[in-house]
Specification:
Elements lengths: L36 E5 L22 E7 L6 H20 L8 E7 L4 H14 L3 E5 L2 H13 L3 E4 L4 H4 L7 E3 L4 H14 L5 E5 L3 H17 L3 E6 L8 H10 L3 E4 L5 H10 L5 E4 L2 H4 L12 E4 L15 H14 L7 H19 L4 H9 L4 E2 L6 E2 L17 E7 L5 E3 L2
Helix pairs in contact: 1-10, 1-11, 2-3, 5-6, 7-8, 11-12
Length: 421
């Protein structure tokens, strides 16, 4: 479930301790031996286009290697550890359903400690080794540093981030996201508020590059929808107590709150309760990222969501055998919480990658990117959800806006929420 860049990613980066059952860590490649890493390879693979042996002849023998550059040690290690966990489960289930051009897929998790210099060193080693596929290219300052470098060297990136600065097609021709874009986050939040008569909006943001971009998108959408901005308050992403900025919005007369940053979500909801306030709180998905519950927020709070249950339909509509199997395997690692279903998004990333490789018949970055760039209506493991990278050709986010909505704080099986009405 996302991928915000300040301290973690959309729908997966969480400040929660993981279980001790992590994947075994081993060196991913000889050239990357200076970095701590972990690997996951399983038999079998993907749901991409069917490719002939001739089309796949240029793919080297052995597994197809893909890399996550993530913090597995250091102060932001919990974010990387969660990626490590869901990548392993997704790869196991992905490989169990077939192959990519007859090849297994191997996911390697390389530890950058959350340090930009270390992250850049790993990226250089991958480029020098001729590796061409990266999934998560770190977070925050490290991602800001290495993303342009990977683009310069034509490395394909496929993950779930929403930032235009990372996925605009002109500057980032080899970078793709299977998740919603920041513009889609803004549109869904603002349209929800307008359709329910919520106005007099206050914005809380953290000053991060992600927060600044989403705030700008939200303000543009508010102008288009005719919603009134009361005040924007920017807090420090290292803040421990946020009663002062929350109180500033309350005193300014805000009736609706958009929290457009990534950090300090729990502190925001705690501060709202502490000052005795009950605004209309509308999330872009960050409430789920941090495991916020209905008991912690004002009545009627909603949070945008990509995979959810539809009221009136059986939960089995979403919980297909493959998805249920993945969720059970992920729950065995981290428990059942609002982060468990991040494995669904990881699986979809692998499906998009398989499609790119099989259409291109190659592991060449530009060829794989060209295949995704022209892809529309690509089925995913989620029933009825098809990726479309041609709908907004200037932005490489494949999640269709029509499938994106707000969710109530009501959780169903595996803590997946229900679409709001």
């Amino acid at each position: 479930m996302p991928l915000p860049r300040s301290v973690g990613i959309r729908r997966t980066a969480v400040p929660a301790a993981l279980s001790a059952a992590h994947l075994l860590r081993a060196a991913a490649c000889s050239s990357c031996s200076s970095s701590s890493s972990s690997s996951s390879t399983a038999a079998g693979g993907g749901a991409g286009a069917t490719a002939s042996a001739k089309e796949c002849a240029s793919i080297p023998a052995g597994p197809i290697n893909v890399y996550n550059i993530i913090p597995l040690t250091g102060p932001t290690a919990t974010s990387g550890e969660l990626i490590e966990s869901i990548a392993g489960v997704a790869a196991d289930y992905f490989n169990a359903h077939g192959s990519i051009c007859g090849h297994k897929i191997a996911v390697h998790n390389l530890d950058d400690k959350g340090d930009p210099a270390t992250s850049l060193g790993i990226a250089r080693q991958l480029v020098n080794s001729g590796d061409t596929i990266v999934m998560q290219d770190s977070f925050g300052a490290a991602e800001d540093l290495i993303h342009p470098y990977l683009m310069q060297h034509q490395v394909l990136i496929v993950n779930g981030n929403g930032a235009y600065s990372l996925y605009n097609a002109k500057q980032n021709p080899y970078s793709f996201s299977v998740g919603p874009s920041n513009q889609e986050y803004a549109e869904v939040m603002v349209n929800w508020a307008k359709s329910h008569g919520y106005n007099n909006v206050g914005i809380l943001t953290d000053g991060s590059s992600f927060g600044n971009e989403l705030t700008a998108d939200t303000l543009a959408q508010m102008k288009a929808d005719g919603l009134k901005l009361v005040k924007t308050v920017t807090y420090s992403p290292t803040s421990v107590v946020l009663t002062t900025p929350v109180e500033q919005l309350r005193q300014a007369g805000a009736q609706t709150v958009f929290a457009t940053g990534f950090t300090d979500v729990l502190q925001i909801v705690q501060a709202i309760k502490q000052v005795g306030w009950s605004p209309h709180l509308v999330g872009w998905g960050n409430l789920a990222v941090f495991g916020v519950t209905a008991a912690q927020v004002p009545p009627g709070t909603v949070d945008s969501c990509d995979y959810r249950y539809t009221p009136g339909q059986p939960t089995s509509t979403l919980l297909t055998p493959t998805i249920l199997g993945m969720l059970k395997a992920e729950a065995a690692k981290i428990g059942i919480n609002t982060q468990t279903y991040g494995v669904i998004g990881q699986y979809i990333e692998l499906q998009a990658l398989a499609h790119a490789i099989e259409v291109a018949g190659s592991l060449n970055g530009p060829k794989m990117a060209a295949a995704l760039d022209s892809t529309s209506n690509l089925p995913t493991v989620v029933p009825g959800l098809n990726l479309d990278f041609t709908a907004t050709p200037t932005v490489h986010n494949g999640f269709p806006l029509a499938d994106f909505t707000e969710c109530t704080m009501q959780n169903g099986p595996y803590d997946i929420r229900y679409g709001a009405s």
